[in-house]
Every structure is written in C-alpha cells, then in structure tokens.
Amino acid sequence: xxxxxxxxxxxxxxxxxxxxxxxxxxxxxxxxxxxxxxxxxxxxxxxxxxxxxxxxxxxxxxxxxxxxxxxxxxxxxxxxxxxxxxxxxxxxxxxxxxxxxxxxxxxxxxxxxxxxxxxxxxxxxxxxxxxxxxxxxxxxxxxxxxxxxxxxxxxxxxxxxxxxxxxxxxxxxxxxxxxxxxxxxxxxxxxxxxxxxxxxxxxxxxxxxxxxxxxxxxxxxxxxxxxxxxxxxxxxxxxxxxxxxxxxxxxxxxxxxxxxxxxxxxxxxxxxxxxxxxxxxxxxxxxxxxxxxxxx
Length: 296
What we know:
Distance between the termini: 27 Å
Mean pLDDT: 78
Strand content: 5-15%
Number of strands: 4
Helix content: over 70%
Order of helices and strands: HHEHEHHEHEHHHH
Strand order of the largest sheet: 2-3-1-4
C-alpha cells in the first residue's frame, strides 16, 4: 500500500514537471485567482472588525434629577451596575458636565455659562451594555429605576447601525462566495486543459488493464500540488503586503479610530482558507477532469 502511494506521489510530481508550460498556466491561474480572493477576504475581515468595533462602542446616557446629589448619583450607578446585561457605568458629575460643555462651546460662551448662579446640568450616567444588541432592552430597564429623570433613547441609532452592519456583512459574504465559485470553475477548467492534453495516455493505460483509481490518483496528486503551491504564493505575498500596511497604519484604519485585524491573526486565517481552497479545487479539478477519459 505504501509503495502504491509513493508511486502516485512520484507520478504526480513527474506530471507537473513534465508538462511544464501547461502546469505553469494552471499554477498561474490558481495564483492570480486566489490572490484576488485573498485580497477580498482581507477587506471582508477588516470590515467585519470595524463593524464589531462600532457595535461594541454603543452606549447611552441616563440623566438624574437636576437637584440630585453626587451621592445619589453613585447609588443609582451602583444599582445599574448590578444589572446582568450592563458592562460599565460612568458617572459624570454636574461640575464635570459643565467643564465639558465649556470646552465644547469654547471661551466665547464661558461668560454665559458662568452667569448661572447654580449649575443647571443634571448628573449624567453613561451606560454601556455587555451585548450591543441588548442596548435598547437595557435602556428600557434603566428608565424604570427610581431616580432616573430621562434616558437618551438609543432605539433609532442602534437600529440604524445594526441595519448598516447587516448590509455590509451580507454584501461581503455574497461577494466572497461569488468570487469563490468563479475561482473554482476557472482553476478546475485550467487543470482540465492540462489533463486533456494527455487523454491518449489515459486511454492506453485503461486499455492495458489499469483500474480507474490507479489512473486517477496521479492526476489528483498533480491537481492538489498545483492547488497547494498556487495558494502558498498569494498567501506569502498578501501576508507581507498586509504586514507592511498594518505597520504603516499603526494598526488602525486610516483617519479612523477603528483597529485593523492583527497581521498575525489575519495571516493564519488567510493561510488556512486559501490553502484549503487550493487543495480542494485541485482535488476536485483532478477528479472531475479525468473522469471523462476513463470511459473507454
């Protein structure tokens, strides 16, 4: 059995070398197609990363009565923190809120704000849920807590964000799947052409008594070798290019505060996906392409 497998492997490697230009054409098709697919996957992974980052930053504000003291604000904040779906609660005191407002409005409005005898701002609680999708449910629960005068309704904003993220995700998935199907047919057809040039050899082997699988395995090995090496090259090129981009962008989308997928993590994902696709396409192309010529 071991001798037979060694023979299939040796014949598969010999076929790749012997059919130089045809093998090169098939290898080039695999490299180019998987490079385009890999680039699309890089974009998809990073868009998903950005979408997750946006969702994880969702939070809403709750306001206490204007006359509520800082002690009451801390008590209400502690009560909200005990809720199982709440990740964190930040307390913004009346003085902190006024300082932030002065900073936002600028020095021109400072005199107007200083004219108030008492600070008119309420204590603000910034609530962040554990699950971004539960933000509206958490907001509805916070409204019922004694001491909360108003809650900035996050329903409309959350719904708009999640609809946008769903559209981005669905478009990315459809694009990648369409490109994957196109890649499979393009690469398998190229491999089929290389096997078509040796149809006489297959017919002769069949006529002298060779079994279908004895004939088929060297071509399967050949297709898988082409798929494997055709996936390794784009993985290496894309990994080097992405690492350079990641270092240049300092790990963030250009001009935005959203993190890129770490280079190491993305390289592993890309290698696993593209190598698996290359092997599967090579296996499928080698198996399906030779089947037609086994009917002698």
